[in-house]
Amino acid sequence: MIKQNKLAPGRSYLAIPGPSVMPDAVLSAMHRAAPNIYEGELVEMMPALAADLKRVARTDRHVAMYISNGHGAWEAALSNVIAPGDRVLVLATGRFGHGWAEMATGLGAEVDILDFGRNAPVDLAQVAERLKADSGHQIKAVMAVHVDTSSSVRNDVPGLRRLLDEAGHPALLMADCIASLGCERFEMDAWGVDVMVTASQKGLMVPPGMAFVFFNDRAEEARARLPRVSRYWDWSPRAHAQEFYQYHGGTAPTHHLYGLRAALDIIHKEGIEQVWQRHETLARAVWAACEAWSAEGSLRFNIEDRALRSHAVTALRLQAPHATDLRDWVQGNLGLTLGVGLGMALPGEPAWHGFFRLGHMGHVNGHMIMGLLGGIEAGLSALKIDHGPGALQAAAEVIGGA
């Protein structure tokens, strides 16, 4: 049995790809008595809150808010544009593409899946062929995950819009940005995305419990053509609220709203372009360390091509059972929690213990990333897992040169 060094007391570090680390300002904003939901500060702050959310998404169109996790955002988005029997095309590059497809199936849609595996992005050529074959325009929506949190691949969303335009295809382009909004460059209007979904617990740095659906006028027209929409999921009263209760279909998630207000203030003070740049630099530091470790032993990236990797999460492979051993060691000894290899193998299978993920999203900075990497280095050394030298130096050089 490995001796526990008892270095875990102190502030723990949750380095999983969401829920992400929450700023003290967000926690402080939420630590208050219940507010009045009929008049006063909370009611008055909603128009500006919605406007600042749209600034992060880079859209001047519409946003609907839900008391929900990301799965609820999936269902809300689909419920407003897809009727039972409609056909959708889902582009899967990991577990979460399949999850959105399952939600569409549950709503009665006819679901076609192009599965590109767990370590590759969407192949635009295959998508172009599928759109070309749909001469009757049966496909009502093309659904893709911008960053799949399980595989850490980043997909070419503007490339999908280009394909739709070149094919003259009227399908809506729907993007899941749950893992990417507030971390990766995303330009909803400029990229021609019709519907985008996200949630509060990753780049927005707020506890799980709120979800958001952004949509443009094309999507709003699609909603108007549906014979019915669930009263609760209907985005119209939420996006065009005349009274406060309509923003959330009833009682508001009061304390989440205060936390979100604080988080948006942090994002806009830094500036969204700088937020994207910070995430890109910190991701490169993580990659530099992992590349050094991978020079010896079995550590490998799930996504080999840097240009295809997320700036918010890095998925890694390590010969089983070493990935689980490493996660257990750093959590027990250092108070550092790494992410499991979600969707890469079934829990209970031996292969499941050969994957882990590093979250570097939201409220993270250089010394936090260096601490994360130093903890992993300590774990690799303590467990005598083969790895190459120079990882921390490589990461420091990236951060030092930023």
UniProtKB/TrEMBL annotation:
Transmembrane segments: none
Domain Aminotransferase class V: 62-341
One Gene Ontology MF term: transaminase activity
Matches recorded under InterPro entries: Aminotrans_V_dom, Aminotrans_V_PyrdxlP_BS, PyrdxlP-dep_Trfase, PyrdxlP-dep_Trfase_major, PyrdxlP-dep_Trfase_small, SP_NH2Trfase/AEP_transaminase
Alphabetical UniProt keywords: Aminotransferase, Pyridoxal phosphate, Transferase
Pfam families: Aminotran_5
Cofactor(s) demanded: pyridoxal 5'-phosphate
Homology family: Belongs to the class-V pyridoxal-phosphate-dependent aminotransferase family.
Protein name, UniProt field: Aminotransferase class V-fold PLP-dependent enzyme
Taxonomic source organism: Sulfitobacter faviae
